[in-house]
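Person: Please comment on this record:
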Amino acid sequence: MNVPCVRVPRESGEETRKQLADADLLDHDHQISVVDGDLYIPVVDADAVPSEFEVVEYEAPDRDTQTNPADILGFEPSYERLGDVVILDEDDAERAHEIADAIVASDLRAETVVNRASKIKGELRVRDWDVLVGDSTETVHREYGHEFHLDIATVYFSPRLATERHRVVEQVQEGEHVFDMFAGVGPFAIPAAANGAEVVACDLNESAIEYLRENADRNDVSDRITAIHGDVREVAVDYEGWAERLVMNLPHSANEFVETAVRLAADECVVHFYDIQHEDDPFGPGLDAIRDAAEPEFDVEVLEENIVRSYAPHEYNVCLDVRLTRRQ
């Protein structure tokens, strides 16, 4: 059955859909369709559509159930959700645009669709993005009851690590001294503070620290977080022997900071050491680095060896939980 639709180029699709939604003109009984790079957006009243838009008759499919991108594409695309940003990792630009079109046409909530344009780079761990839909790379991500405002163009954040972060934070006790050495926008620090810990959160990325401070306010824990912009090796001078729990989530180079971690450690301290290693020995190199730095001043006890995720063929992102106990 033909119904009135606004026809727009795909690059204008999301903006147009929002305008029509704001005017209460969207026809929710029919699906948005993608044809030859154009979107056909069904409307309930063709006469009420602003004159700037082209209205055509189109045989739009009935909407019986929620429409997913796979329903439109005919295959299941791979993507991540971060707040209202959808993240693609496609080498083929045409395929990336096709998936972005399907996301806009589906019922998936998305203000922005981006495609990875570079690997993580530099000491600030950020990457380039191709923005396919929308005009902002800022979003608010919700995780285990906490909100994190961030801009993926200026800070590093991985939604894939939510379960792992929750595993660590569940161990935090009220009144504990927690030092997050590479804190980002606060996904470890803020829930730790919410559990009643006193938290020091450090990061070399000034933008991340600005978001962290905002997120501490947003989550009502600013009175228990000290956010510091700087190199943790320099910041550690003011916190020697303070930390009862250390988070070292810098998996490519955390081994370069184990001596700093030992300086920060209190008489008893749990360390969450993140690493990326070959499957043949995923935990050995990290444990060797910790022992080399901590012994004989501390006894080193392995509490848990946790494989977080597969990182690359034959490589794992892992977390080694150890307890350091100062020898008397």
About this structure: The chain has a mean pLDDT of 93. The longest helix spans residues 93-105.
